[in-house]
């Protein structure tokens, strides 16, 4: 039995540069991980037995990206081994923190280990993108400048500040935002070098603020303390601070009912730090 993290990601910027024929959008984004997220525990089970506990409200087990990732791995390899998976869910759903995608990536990496499949990271990444555009960055595990639908990744090394991440009490469905006629989807593509010399923004933010006044209100509140932005298609917002204490102080003042957390930006995913630690121990 072993436990691995499924960290959250932030989109430090997000720019939508066009819509493809299949409906997906080409984008440019800078992904960074934070040292806070879900945790998954994996243990061996008899052949064909795949279980996930607990179930998530509103998500049928077979629709859960964890089960989908496990089934995809079985189908790709013909493996019939079983697994018991326990999920400690900390990340809000529909928060733009990539929780479901991160759970899927951790499952691919963990079952590759548990079932001794020896699939390469390239293969796991290819399997991952069929589960969601955000899965590849979690499988690769390095902060990255993303292009394409989010799967073309160039390693990047942004500063690693402390973040305050606040979660307005709304769930924003990624599909709804990408299908909205008012979404800005014609931003100019820039090189990473140009991005590093340009103020960062999120092309979904104005639209989400318009559709979800709770998000607009919370960004206005956080802007009083530090430059603040939305991650992904929302609803969560973030601001960076020089110290954990500075971020905690603002969290302590957050409006009643707003959930949030303080976490450190990481250019290497906590999944891979944990995996390296695990690999110093014998296989279960
Ligand atoms: C917005 C981001 O969070 C930025 O990191 C991601 O691009 C979203 O990634 P994700 O949640 O893994 O997205 P998916 O599960 O693949 O797609 C959900 C829906 O979002 C839309 N979608 C997603 C990604 C993308 N590049 N273009 C899109 O148009 C599609 O309508 C798709 O049906
Ligand atoms: N293990 C899972 N954890 C969270 N959501 C899941 C999971 N499996 C399936 N889902 C479904 O995926 C949807 C999106 O969840 P997720 O937490 O990844 O949103 P998100 O943070 O907005 O993602 P993104 O940043 O990729 O847009 C949920 O509303 C839920 O229906």
UniProtKB/TrEMBL annotation:
One of its GO terms (molecular function) is 4-(cytidine 5'-diphospho)-2-C-methyl-D-erythritol kinase activity. It catalyses: 4-CDP-2-C-methyl-D-erythritol + ATP = 4-CDP-2-C-methyl-D-erythritol 2-phosphate + ADP + H(+). Pathway: Isoprenoid biosynthesis; isopentenyl diphosphate biosynthesis via DXP pathway; isopentenyl diphosphate from 1-deoxy-D-xylulose 5-phosphate: step 3/6. It holds the Pfam family GHMP_kinases_C. Residues 189-253 form the GHMP kinase C-terminal domain. InterPro entries: GHMP_kinase_C_dom, GHMP_kinase_C_sf, GHMP_kinase_N_dom, IspE, Ribosomal_Su5_D2-typ_SF, Ribsml_uS5_D2-typ_fold_subgr. ATP binds at residues 92-102. It comes from the Bacteria. Its EC number is 2.7.1.148. Gene3D superfamilies: 3.30.230.10, GHMP kinase, C-terminal domain. The keyword Flavoprotein does not apply. Keywords: ATP-binding, Isoprene biosynthesis, Kinase, Nucleotide-binding, Transferase. Residues 64-141 form the GHMP kinase N-terminal domain. The active site is at 9, 134. NCBIfam families: ispE. Catalyzes the phosphorylation of the position 2 hydroxy group of 4-diphosphocytidyl-2C-methyl-D-erythritol. PANTHER family: 4-DIPHOSPHOCYTIDYL-2-C-METHYL-D-ERYTHRITOL KINASE, CHLOROPLASTIC (PTHR43527:SF2). Belongs to the GHMP kinase family. IspE subfamily. This is 4-diphosphocytidyl-2-C-methyl-D-erythritol kinase. It comes from Oceanisphaera pacifica.
């Amino acid at each position: 039995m072993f436990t691995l993290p499924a960290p959250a990601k932030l989109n430090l910027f997000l720019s939508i540069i066009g819509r493809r024929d299949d409906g997906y959008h080409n984008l440019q984004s800078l992904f960074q991980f934070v040292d806070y997220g879900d945790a998954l525990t994996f243990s061996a089970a008899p052949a064909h037995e795949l279980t996930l506990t607990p179930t998530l409200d509103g998500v049928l087990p077979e629709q859960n990206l964890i089960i989908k990732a496990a089934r995809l791995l079985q189908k790709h390899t013909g493996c019939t081994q079983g697994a018991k998976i326990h999920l400690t869910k900390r990340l809000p759903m529909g928060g733009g923190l990539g929780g479901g995608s991160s759970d899927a990536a951790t499952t691919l990496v963990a079952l590759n280990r548990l079932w001794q499949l020896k699939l390469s990271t390239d293969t796991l990444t290819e399997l991952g993108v069929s589960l969601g555009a955000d899965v590849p960055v979690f499988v690769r595990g390095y902060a990255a400048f993303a292009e394409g639908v989010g799967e073309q990744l160039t390693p990047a090394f942004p500063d690693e500040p402390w973040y305050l991440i606040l979660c307005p009490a709304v769930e924003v469905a990624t599909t709804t935002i990408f299908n909205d006629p008012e979404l800005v989807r014609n931003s100019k593509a820039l090189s990473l070098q140009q991005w590093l010399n340009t103020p960062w923004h999120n092309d979904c933010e104005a639209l989400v603020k318009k559709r979800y006044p709770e998000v607009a209100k919370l960004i206005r509140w956080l802007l009083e303390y530090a430059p603040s932005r939305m991650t992904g298609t929302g609803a969560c917002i973030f601001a960076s601070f020089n110290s954990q204490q500075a971020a905690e102080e603002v969290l302590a003042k957050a409006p009643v009912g707003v959930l949030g957390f303080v976490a450190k930006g990481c250019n290497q995913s906590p999944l891979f730090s944990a995996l390296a630690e695990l690999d110093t121990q014998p296989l279960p």
